[in-house]
Amino acid sequence: MISLFVGESFEGTEIRCHEDFLPALQRLGEYAKRCDVRFHVNSSLRDPGEPVKGAIVEPATLSNHHVGHAIDANPVIGGVLIHSSRLRGPYRALPLAFAELVDLVRLDPTLRWGGDFKTEPDPVHFDDNLKRRDTNGWSLKLAEIWPAKETV
What we know:
Helix content: 25-40%
Mean pLDDT: 92
Structural class: alpha+beta
Number of helices: 4
Strand content: 15-25%
Low-confidence stretches: none
Oligomer: single chain
Shape: globular
Largest sheet: 6 strands, mixed
Radius of gyration: 15 Å
Number of strands: 8
């Protein structure tokens, strides 16, 4: 069910995630290492009933964070934390190391980067698209993790 993930490419808030998300996080960490990027994690598993402090976009009502299949993390390049405002511009304006990492995420069959979201890009968000890939599985996990919450 819920696991703690520790990887050498991650710092900041501890990553609480569903065990099924661990392989995706491991790949994300490998991509970061390959590009000489670290992640400063801001959030992972979230209670669907709690407001999100410091959100840079309006949080989704049916978020992959609610089932432990997403993280929000700022890249750290050369020891410097890159603020989300610097990640919002055109792709070609991204720091090179982060752009290379995004390219690897885009090639991954499961992972996705929130900067590619059409409605409201979220450049610090990474997930495995569980809600769209397996809506029923997402709902079952929500009920398992948060039994008192409504499921979709």
